[in-house]
Design a protein that fits this description.
single chain, alpha/beta, seven-stranded parallel β-sheet, five-stranded parallel β-sheet, globular, binds NADP nicotinamide-adenine-dinucleotide phosphate
Length: about 325
């Protein structure tokens, strides 16, 4: 029997699976009142949301910890080197969230292109003045335009797959080329500067690493078309938010759809008054089915480690 901490609200079925295997489970829906040291000192497993910073100090507070199961595919919230040094396994939840996240990327793309949030807000605030030929919410076409995907992994390719239904030209950038995916999706690899110049819709799907932090800053935004729309479903710090605010304010790009922010849960105050940006509270994978699968994956990982076997989706530090 081991003690497990789940530091977020959790589906009862997932908690029951751990208890059914004989483990003692504590669920914390908000940060522990007595501090992390008290909460973690006797725990052997931690299931955590990606909003928890699992840094050296937190790991120091958990001397018995054997596994951290992150509820997300990105592991930028975890000090992987420090976990490895302490012999703590880290797992994530790839694949099961790919399609839901790609759907949300497309929801943002279409919403910004067709000014859905603006139009809905105006109708609620001012009523429907009647059909007009040139309404205040004229948008831009998506069909046959150019999609640029930065980071052509699971989610990037799923975003591109959806673009086939819109007869789009698909360009992508990643550090390594993927000829198989290129062929399957009719996608073309281009250097980042070319992707920025060519894309009508630029969708960010890279992990957050030292290399991708501020990958899109003032210079990159300056290379984009004035009619281009930026969608960020990756991680907030991939975009220099202050530079984005300036670009949106000055109309240097047409609009943006953001699911993630540089300093979550803070949102850059400059974004809030802008009508050409749609802001979502990091809900890329937030469907019932996907979140249940993610919970199951995290539980599988914890059960495996506590049983002394190799967990699925082990993240190895590079
Ligand atoms: P993945 O399959 O590992 O794909 C990541 C892609 O990014 C790979 O193609 C990788 O290819 C590329 N990449 C890595 N570093 C790069 C760099 N410096 N420049 C250009 N490309 C780079 O990961 P995934 O499952 O698609 O997930 C991607 C990210 O999406 C996650 O890490 C997470 O942060 C984010 N995400 C967000 C949400 C949300 O709720 N909004 C949900 C799920 C995931 P190369 O290594 O060849 O460059």
């Amino acid at each position: 029997m081991a003690k497990v901490l789940i530091s977020t609200a959790m589906f009862p079925e997932a908690v029951e699976r751990l208890k059914g295997a004989g483990h003692e489970v504590e669920v914390l829906e908000s940060p522990p009142a007595q501090g992390w040291k008290a909460a973690l000192q006797d725990k052997e497993a931690l299931i955590c949301p990606l909003s928890l910073r699992v840094n050296a100090a937190l790991l120091e507070a958990a001397p018995r910890l054997r596994v951290v199961a992150n509820l997300g595919v990105g592991v930028d919230n975890i000090d992987l080197q420090e976990a490895a040094r302490r012999g703590i396994a880290v797992t994530n939840t790839p694949d099961v969230l790919t399609e839901a996240t790609a759907d949300l990327g497309w929801a943002l793309l279409l919403t910004v292109a067709r000014r859905v949030v603006e139009a809905d807000g105006d109708l609620r605030a001012h009523g429907f003045p009647g059909w007009t030929f040139i309404p205040p919410h004229l948008g831009v076409d998506v069909y046959r335009k150019t999609l640029g995907v930065v980071g052509f992994g699971r989610i990037g390719q799923a975003v591109a797959r959806r673009a086939q239904g819109f007869s789009m030209r698909i360009l992508y950038h990643s550090r390594t080329r993927n000829p198989q995916a290129e062929q399957a999706l009719g996608a073309t690899w281009v250097p980042l500067h070319e992707l920025l110049k060519e894309s009508d819709f630029l969708v960010l799907c890279v992990p957050l690493t030292p290399e991708t932090r501020h990958l899109i800053g003032a210079r990159e935004l300056g290379l984009m078309k004035r009619e281009a729309i930026l969608v960020n479903i990756a991680r907030g710090p991939v975009v220099d938010e202050a530079a984005l605010v300036e670009a949106l304010r000055e109309g240097r790009i047409l609009g943006a759809g953001l699911d993630v922010f540089e300093e979550e849960p803070k949102v850059h105050p400059g974004l809030l008054p802008l009508r050409n940006v749609v802001l979502l509270p990091h809900i890329g994978s937030a469907t019932w089915a996907t979140r249940r699968k993610m919970a199951d994956m995290a539980v599988d990982a914890v059960l495996a480690v506590l049983a002394g076997t190799k967990p699925p989706n082990l993240v190895v530090p590079r």
